[in-house]
């Protein structure tokens, strides 16, 4: 269900954001939001069920996964049915980013009830996890290669269990019939894409493991290259087993034993047990939704960082960024400063709320975001400190690295239901350890490697048994004033996910850009004193104008974006797929 603020706080939110609207419009907005419905978009008010154009759509990072999703939709399947098929294929053809051994977050829009529900398939730390598990004998953080390839890094996988929970509630087809494309491609082989080939040949720690070498090396001794046909009989057997048994196929029995055994191998063996796997439970909760302009934006709750994305939108609602555009340097300056404020709060206060309370209400209070917005000056100053929202505890500075290795997809079915799902095995190829034809995640390296400050205060994202690590993943769904689906989007990218999503939301909701054009805009990641971007993508003069305001770029932001999304237009569904990756958006 949709979680909205109290009517009084919501009223103030709209007063701050929509003060130029007529009183009658404001009253309508308040009434609509009280029942989880958003006010109508002023420009696209005609975005109703289209008379022509695509009525279903899949946008994902690999064409083979998109076709698998469309095949399910052609059979009358739901968006969640298609999501199962898409994930099963992505785990095969894009194993550097997600898979059966990973986790994710899924935001779901139910067209019949107009509710937005958030599913949490984030991995959990085993019962044997300790706060200092990523420190060496001298108490110093492990090196990156040592940590990400270790047995300690693997948490209990949650993606399949989460999809099973969602499909049981929202599916139309039989679970066993959703894995045909993945099984066929694994058995018969699939063509290695240029992106996968590049990852295979790159000097990542994971590509040097024994399992990765064995899987990605041809009989002649050469690594697979783009255009080669790659088969994975073990993966085909695994998806057949999952199709027949559901998530128990991974969390109990032979595959579970193999996962535990693999995580227990040197170097740096982990503590994962069969009990840890069998006791795993995905979570379902209310999506956290807040109005932005004349829309309502919905995200998962913590340990997702979606609430930080809502905070950034709240900050920007106190600026004139909507009256500007992508060629205006001041628009990008405002974006930069709002991003820095967002990350300062996210990095300090976000973790698993079952262990450390996250001050969601305080972070999203209109008065708080207005005060944060006042910190935006005429030029970029030093990195902003975290604020002090209502309900915030005393927490240590964060030391989470959060390497990239993630994927995102969006699906809309014929009934108007929508899925926005971000899925991951953490960094490239997870730990590089394989079981049943898939890679194990290294998700536990998403915890803070230094759990305490010198004064003894603990980081919100410190390791603990059974805890879910903080995630930047923020699969987003946007509603119109009638509570109907308007758009969905999301991105991979490690810590940069929030900046990628925020850019797309501003471009689509404020600047009224088509989804694809929004994604094509330059990425700009501003976190603390580190600001990265893509100078060649800016309009002439923007980079120089930003430099004059103290905004200078250092690199391009690491992994890069993989934005995928769908938006409703009067002509039908319109999709976008980030040209920085290999995805497509297709519908019928």
Q: What would you note in describing this structure?
A:
This protein has 588 residues and is of the alpha+beta class. It has three domains: 1-35, no CATH class; 59-283 and 427-446, no CATH class; 290-400 and 468-510 and 517-587, 4-Layer Sandwich (Glutamine Phosphoribosylpyrophosphate, subunit 1, domain 1). The chain contains 20 helices and 19 strands. The strands form four sheets. Strands 1, 2, 3, 4, 7, 8, 9, 10, 13, 14, 17, 18 and 19 form a 13-stranded mixed β-sheet that branches. It has a two-stranded antiparallel sheet with strand order 5-6. Strand 7 and strand 8 form a beta hairpin. Helix 3 (63-74) runs antiparallel to helix 4 and helix 14 (306-316) runs antiparallel to helix 15. The chain starts with a strand and ends with a strand. The model is unreliable at 1-50 (pLDDT under 50).
Secondary structure topology:
Elements: E1 2-3, H1 7-17, H2 23-33, E2 57-60, H3 63-74, H4 79-93, E3 103-110, E4 115-120, H5 144-148, H6 159-170, H7 180-188, E5 190-191, H8 194-201, H9 210-216, E6 229-230, H10 233-245, H11 248-251, H12 253-263, H13 274-278, E7 283-292, E8 295-299, H14 306-316, H15 329-349, H16 360-364, H17 366-373, E9 406-412, E10 418-424, E11 434-435, E12 438-439, E13 476-479, E14 485-490, H18 497-510, H19 515-520, E15 524-527, E16 530-533, H20 542-548, E17 564-569, E18 572-577, E19 584-587
Parallel strand pairs: 1-7
Antiparallel strand pairs: 2-9, 2-19, 3-4, 3-10, 4-7, 5-6, 7-8, 8-13, 9-10, 11-12, 13-14, 14-17, 15-16, 17-18
Helix pairs in contact: 1-2, 3-4, 4-6, 4-7, 7-10, 14-15, 14-17, 14-18, 15-20
């Amino acid at each position: 269900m949709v979680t909205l603020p109290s009517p009084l706080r919501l009223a103030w939110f709209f007063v701050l954001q929509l003060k130029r609207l007529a009183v009658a419009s404001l009253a309508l907005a308040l009434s609509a939001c009280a029942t989880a419905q958003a006010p109508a978009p002023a420009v696209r008010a005609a975005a109703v069920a289209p008379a022509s154009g695509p009525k279903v759509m899949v946008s994902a990072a690999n064409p083979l996964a998109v076709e698998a999703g469309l095949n399910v939709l052609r059979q009358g399947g739901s968006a969640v049915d298609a999501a199962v098929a898409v994930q099963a294929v992505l785990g095969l053809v894009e194993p550097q980013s997600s898979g059966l051994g990973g986790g994710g977050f899924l935001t779901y829009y139910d067209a019949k009830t107009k509710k937005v529900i958030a599913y949490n398939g984030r991995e959990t730390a085993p019962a044997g996890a300790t706060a200092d598990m990523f420190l060496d004998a001298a108490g110093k953080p492990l090196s990156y290669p040592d940590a990400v390839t270790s047995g300690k890094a693997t948490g209990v996988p949650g993606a399949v269990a989460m999809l099973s929970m969602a499909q049981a509630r929202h599916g139309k087809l039989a679970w066993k019939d959703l894995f045909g494309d993945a099984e066929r491609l694994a058995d018969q082989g699939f063509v290695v894409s240029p992106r996968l080939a590049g990852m295979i040949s790159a000097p990542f720690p994971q590509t040097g493991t024994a399992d990765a070498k064995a899987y990605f090396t041809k009989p002649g001794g050469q690594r697979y290259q783009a255009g080669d046909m790659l088969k994975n009989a073990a993966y085909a057997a695994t998806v057949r087993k999952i199709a027949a048994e559901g998530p128990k196929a991974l969390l109990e029995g032979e595959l579970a034993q193999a996962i535990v055994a693999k995580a227990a191998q040197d170097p740096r063996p982990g503590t994962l047990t069969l009990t840890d796997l069998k006791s795993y439970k995905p979570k379902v909760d209310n999506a956290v939704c807040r109005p932005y302009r004349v829309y309502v934006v919905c995200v998962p709750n913590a340990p997702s960082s979606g609430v930080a994305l809502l905070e950034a939108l709240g900050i920007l609602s106190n600026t004139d960024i909507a009256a500007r555009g992508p060629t205006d340097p001041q628009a990008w300056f405002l974006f930069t400063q709002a991003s820095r404020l967002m990350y300062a709060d996210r990095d300090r206060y976000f973790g698993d709320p079952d262990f450390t309370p996250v001050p969601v209400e305080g972070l999203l209070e209109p008065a708080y975001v207005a005060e944060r917005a006042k910190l935006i000056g005429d030029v970029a100053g030093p990195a902003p400190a975290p604020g002090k929202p209502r309900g915030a505890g005393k927490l240590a500075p964060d030391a989470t690295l959060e390497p990239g290795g993630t994927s995102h997809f969006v699906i809309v079915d014929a009934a108007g239901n929508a899925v926005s799902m971000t899925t991951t095995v953490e960094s490239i190829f997870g730990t590089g350890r394989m079981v049943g034809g898939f890679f194990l995640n290294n998700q536990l390296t998403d915890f803070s490697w230094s759990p305490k400050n010198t004064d003894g205060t603990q980081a919100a994202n410190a390791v603990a048994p059974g805890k879910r690590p903080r995630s930047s993943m923020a699969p987003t769904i946007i509603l119109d004033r009638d509570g109907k689906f308007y758009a969905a989007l999301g991105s991979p990218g490690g810590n940069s996910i929030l900046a990628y999503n925020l850019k797309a939301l501003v471009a689509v909701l404020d600047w009224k850009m088509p989804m694809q054009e929004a994604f094509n805009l330059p990425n700009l990641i501003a976190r603390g004193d580190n600001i990265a971007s893509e100078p060649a993508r800016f309009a002439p003069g923007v980079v120089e104008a930003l430099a004059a305001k103290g905004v200078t770029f250092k690199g391009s932001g690491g992994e890069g974006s993989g934005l995928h999304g769908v938006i409703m237009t009067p002509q039908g569904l319109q999709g976008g797929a980030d040209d920085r990756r290999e995805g497509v958006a297709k519908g019928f």
